[in-house]
Amino acid sequence: MNDNTRGILFMVLAMAVLIGSDMVVKRLAEGMPLFEVICLRHIVMTLCLGAMAWRERSFVRKLGGGARALVALRTLGEVGIVMFYMLALTMMPMGTATALFQLQPLAVTLAAAVFLSQPIGPRRIAVIAVGFSGVLLIVPPGALGPGQGALGPGAFFVLLAVVCVCLRDISTRALGPGVPAPVLAFLASAALLLVSFIAMQIRGGWVPVSPSELGGIGLGAALLMAGYLAMVHAMRTGDIAVIAPFRYVSLVFGLLGGFVLFGEVPRPAMLLGGAIIVASGMYTFLRERQLRRAEHHRR
């Protein structure tokens, strides 16, 4: 088995277990306050990630003022992704939320052109426009307004989560490799723990947790941790341009999980919109790979 094949398998595994963690949270939030679920999950996550970072001696590096600001922005983005996306899952079908969330690579490409001055030609602009047209099939115009049922506010929160993905990825790109990944993950988890604890207190405080719910929280944390580790292995193995497009298998897992566990039947227009977004994102990855190869041959 070559490196690319291993990387693809790690990426598919990462997407499967991350969607599994989302499904656990969605199920638990039916009987528990969402912020309590997130808080308890990130107690486990913060302890595990802190132990990993300590074992790798990742906390010994000192950061300058500029790096600290970028780390703060990245952490803010991570918090927004989880909080907004988890809120969305409590308001809309899982398959719909997963399909909308596939906008993230296209949105990051556009954000990199705007904030990092990365070149973006007419082809990329056209692909981004096509990808965003898929959103209109998933969420028709007017469906984001109040009084439009669960789809409206849920879709709005997914789009806010996509904006937070842009904030996280752009600040990570600007930060560079100077800060170890375990430290970044630990800081994000600790921030989520703090924010969810405060939100939980505002919304009414703790409620009793049954043994089965506590087991579900442990399962969700274990799946999230496994997904993080699998993602790290995927990104460190093989050609990223080959492996990255397999992030889109999360749409398959999201649709399947929504149907099996929650009885969600996707609309044909939603499936078409999701397919358009995925195809646009895959074209972006493949085009980037082609350009890198051409640049390499010119050197």
UniProtKB/TrEMBL annotation:
InterPro entries named in the record: EamA_dom, EmrE-like
Membrane topology category: Multi-pass membrane protein
Ranges for domain EamA: 6-139
Matches recorded under Pfam families: EamA
GO CC list: membrane
Transmembrane segments: 7-25, 31-54, 66-88, 94-116, 125-144, 150-167, 179-202, 214-234, 246-263, 269-286
Compartment annotation: Membrane
Keyword set, alphabetical order: Membrane, Transmembrane, Transmembrane helix
PANTHER family xref list: ACYL-MALONYL CONDENSING ENZYME-RELATED, SOLUTE CARRIER FAMILY 35 MEMBER G1
Record family assignment: Belongs to the drug/metabolite transporter (DMT) superfamily. 10 TMS drug/metabolite exporter (DME) (TC 2.A.7.3) family.
Protein name: S-adenosylmethionine uptake transporter
Organism ancestry: Bacteria, Pseudomonadati, Pseudomonadota, Alphaproteobacteria, Rhodobacterales
